Amino acid sequence: MGSLEAAVVGAPPKRSPPLRSSPPPAAGRSSLHRARSRLARFLFSEKVGYVQWVLTVAAFLLVIALFQAFLPGSAVERPGGGRDAGGGGLAQIQGLDFGEGIRFVPTKLLARWERESREANSSASGAFGGRPPRRFGLRKPLLALVFPDLLPDAMQLQMVSIASVLKEIGYDVEVFSFEDGPVHSVWQTIGVSVSILPITTKREITIDWLDYNGILVSSLDSRPLISCLSQEPFKNVPVIWTIHERSLALHLNKYAANGQVQLLSDWKQAFSRATVVVFPMYIMPMMYSEFDVDNFLVIPGSPAEAWESDSSAKQKHHNLKENMGYGPEDFVIAIVSSQFSYSGMLIDHALILEALTPLLQQLPYVNTSFSSLKIGILSPNLTAASRTALEAIAQKVGFPNSIVENIIVDQDMNNFMDKADIVIYGSFLEEQFFPNILMQALSLGKLVVAPDLVMISKYVVNGMNAYLFSKEKVDTLSKILLEVVSNGKLSLSAQQVASDGKRHARNLMATETIQGYVSLLEKVVKFPSEIAPPKPIEEIPVKLREEWQWDLFLNIRGMDNLNGSFKRYKMLDKVEEQFNQRNSGNTSANFDEAFSSIAWEEEKIIEMMNAKRRIEEEELKDRSDQPHGTWEEVYRSSKRADRARNELHERDERELERTGQLLCVYEPYFGEGAWPFLHQTSLYRGVGLSSKGRRPGADDIDASSRLPLLSNSYYRDVLGEYGAFFALANRIDRVHKNAWIGFQSWRASARKNSLSKEAEAKLLEAIQKRRHGDALYFWIRLDKDPRNPQHLDFWDFCDAINAGNCRFAVAEVLRRMYNIQLDWNSLPLMPKDGDSWSVMHSWVLPTRSFLEFVMFSRMFVDEMDALAYDDHHMSGRCFLSMSKDRQCYSRLLELLANVWAYHSARRMVYVNPESGAMQEQHRLENRRGQMWIRWFSYATLKGMDEDRAEEADSDRPDRRWLWPQTGEVVWRGVYERERNMRQQQKERRKQQSKDKIRRIKKRARQKTLGKYIKPPPDGADNVNTTRRR
């Protein structure tokens, strides 16, 4: 169809300017203003020549003359309502254009898919090292279908039919719904499991959406899931959001008028999260154009019209015409048109009305005054001026006022079409799809007469399920009408054509819809190497892909249409209510209510007492002696006070309990989507790989602050959980003071594979008693991983999840690590002895052994980065995946702990996550002669680590080197340099002290100017006089 077909050869696809239904007055003024602006630029442009001026004026005068003929003042009134005897009432407009074509082409979306296809082909041809990626096909791709409820409706019928085809070509499907309903049994009939999600708009849905290769969301009411998928780590899961409601589009003007900008922004953010937003009609992308972020697509076709006609047929009364105000002898004709407004619409209706005039003579009059012919023009897009002109045209061609009426209200249009005998499509506009109004008419069993447009002729056959006439020769419409109308009723042949049309409409365009979704999934969903690609749709039975699954809904059809209008606006009302509550939270009324319980007099007294106390303390401080020290002493005291203040922070109960434990299990996570899967007990502690997505108020570790490398999104994605390993190992004594350390992926909790309380107790008991010594305890087995349904051995599974290049990558990295000759390609032996291995980074180790494992991992990751960085960072393609992949070698690192533990002679013990039962895997006595102990010994790894540290610390190479950024750079020269620096600082301080003393001694002193004599007291006699005896 037009939505999925390629663009015109030789030119990029273009998206025609959107034409809307008749806009509100404000929009009309805006359109008029834009038109005037274009006209002004055109008239005053220097490129317009004299001949173009003349042609423009002539065309304008011609249009004025033509429309002047149709105005009420120009209409010629005929006695009795007869038409002009000449018969050429509208002959002068036969040669006019019927309007320009309207096309919606998602240009950027198609260009993106074409670019991705070219990149995929080029990467396959130019593979790394001549090793193209290989697909193993161990399991089927898994899709999730999400619905707001499971009530029977056309959407459920469509998705059940699509899911049946998807299962047939090789997909696995699971259904999620916010409410249960009768369709639950239908999904179970076709072998699809159904899960009920909690009804909440908060992001607390505990489903690991990373398990699904794609998610198909239906209806606006499923927006809570879109909000959940907008957070990490689910932001990159492909989402196809099918929207069939117009309710939100009809609310946009109200939101804009009320100034609800934030509400519009929230909806736009939701639309932008979807990988593709699918609409069933081409007019809907134009209605939702405000939310378009180049991800809109149209897959035309839906069983909605046939479903509604079946539902309304059960509620119809027998005498429908009499109930609607028409007599039983009236012959009703409905003229319908395109859902788009275009310039030639008025001319199209005029030509149709002229072709209907022969029926005035054939159909009898009732009581000799009123004709039994009733014509209704169903066109909500006509303006008031156009309707006035159309009435004048009807009078001009000979119709009395009581025969032709304009119907613009949707409900009246539906009722009028229900009682119509013939439905005529009165639009000659070439469109991209079969008109929905004709689909509705066919589903109601009405006789359809339409022009032979391309998209109409493609789906109906003239004389079999509808009648077609040439748009170039409109007079053929009169001949068709005279043939199908006999004695004021439809002829038997016409009734048979209408009946065949109704049966044909039940599955009309089902093939295009089903194939459209299958083709869309092929473009959107990227399959990892362990997933088998689906079969071509041509290999499934024709009946399955060309018909809707009506038979599955036979027993539940009576339960539909329950509070349909209420359900349609349910989510919109909920979102608007939450928005109003959020905005009204800071009103003066709420502010006064929040502070009404405060005893203001008591607060005032307390504040005065505190102020008085502060003044007294300041006065006493001023009176006391203040010793003055050097700036160095002041700096040290301030630093000491800061450290004391940081150490006195308030600790929660889990942090205090964790201090005396033997073990702490860390749970790395990235984003708010993983919060519901994290544990809250003291045994566990979260590690946020990004500072933005950390849990508020939790005692989680910020990995990016401990390891600045994780602030780079590229390495955060590539390393995965290994980023948490490196961050914790970097100066580990500052955050981890336990003898044992463990890790558990949040995805283990999502898969119900995390440790139970009983398993935790038995694991702690085994650690405390040192039952297995220096061992690696793990509780998620390789042979039970859903990615390994065929129970492959270690290296085969590693190849399967890494596009067949795992062995090559590990051998090449080890060769570079140990600096071995080029022709070396050996691999560490990982035997298939009936035991299993650890996956998903869920294990426990002694802290000292963990540091040794990190020392090995840092060197391995450094060489892995040097091997894959250039190609992956520049193009996004990795030789360990089938398509563009941000994780690249993170799947290989997931299995690296097994290689290190096996060849470093560590015991490997499996712990049953439910019961806690322990079973040793790959016993040490059976490994003799198979382990590479010298390669993985602590002495070897420590020597390699010190060599790299010395190079990084002494030589400081200019090349891009990852290893120094993954942790501490420590070697013997660092300790010596630090000791020398401390000795130099000590000697410098001694010299400064000696210099100070020397300056004091050499300081010049001023001599005494004279001797001070104390004067006698004031009351004493003159002591200088001599006393006579």
UniProtKB/TrEMBL annotation:
<feature type="region of interest" description="Disordered">
    <location>
        <begin position="1"/>
        <end position="32"/>
    </location>
</feature>
<keyword id="KW-0812">Transmembrane</keyword>
<dbReference type="Pfam" id="PF13692">
    <property type="entry name" value="Glyco_trans_1_4"/>
</dbReference>
<keyword id="KW-1133">Transmembrane helix</keyword>
<keyword id="KW-0472">Membrane</keyword>
<feature type="transmembrane region" description="Helical">
    <location>
        <begin position="48"/>
        <end position="71"/>
    </location>
</feature>
<feature type="compositionally biased region" description="Basic and acidic residues">
    <location>
        <begin position="980"/>
        <end position="995"/>
    </location>
</feature>
<protein>
    <recommendedName>
        <fullName>Glycosyl transferase family 1 domain-containing protein</fullName>
    </recommendedName>
</protein>
<feature type="compositionally biased region" description="Pro residues">
    <location>
        <begin position="14"/>
        <end position="26"/>
    </location>
</feature>
<feature type="compositionally biased region" description="Basic residues">
    <location>
        <begin position="996"/>
        <end position="1008"/>
    </location>
</feature>
<feature type="region of interest" description="Disordered">
    <location>
        <begin position="980"/>
        <end position="1029"/>
    </location>
</feature>
